[in-house]
Structures are given as structure tokens and as C-alpha cells.
Amino acid sequence: MLKPGSLCVGGRGCAPVWTPLGTCVAAFLYDSAAGIGGLNHFMLAQRSRGAGLDDLRYGVIAMDALLDEVLRAGAARR
Hints:
Number of strands: 3
Radius of gyration: 13 Å
Helix content: 10-25%
Structural class: alpha+beta
Strand content: 25-35%
Number of helices: 1
Largest sheet: 3 strands, antiparallel
Distance between the termini: 28 Å
Mean pLDDT: 93
Shape: globular
Order of helices and strands: EEEH
């Protein structure tokens, strides 16, 4: 189970991942040619004052982190 403020990236054959949603948001990116995908789970769109630049509870940070991790794992940007 993926908790708020986290993300997961994997390839073919990895264990299934799921996340419960209430008022949170989850995004899934998948490159079918490479067989690589990733999922994040965030709570708020914008970062609040005092939040760290790596706080995945915020969509503006979580989306960039998810894209970076999926690309680093071998997915193609297109």
C-alpha cells in the first residue's frame, strides 16, 4: 500500500501497488514500450511555507519526483 507523501516506481514483474484515496490525489505514469511505471500519492497541490523541497505530500513536488524516477528507471519521456 502506498501511503500519502510517497511514490513507487517499478518494471515488469514487480509486485502490484495500490493506494487508498479520500481527498488525496494519485497519479500513475506508464511507458508500455519499456514496461516501466510509477505511482505517487499526494495531499495538497502547492507546497506550504516551511515544507522541504523533497516533501512528496505536495503535488508540485510529487509530480516532478515521479517523472524523474520513471525516467531514471528507463522510461522514455515521449
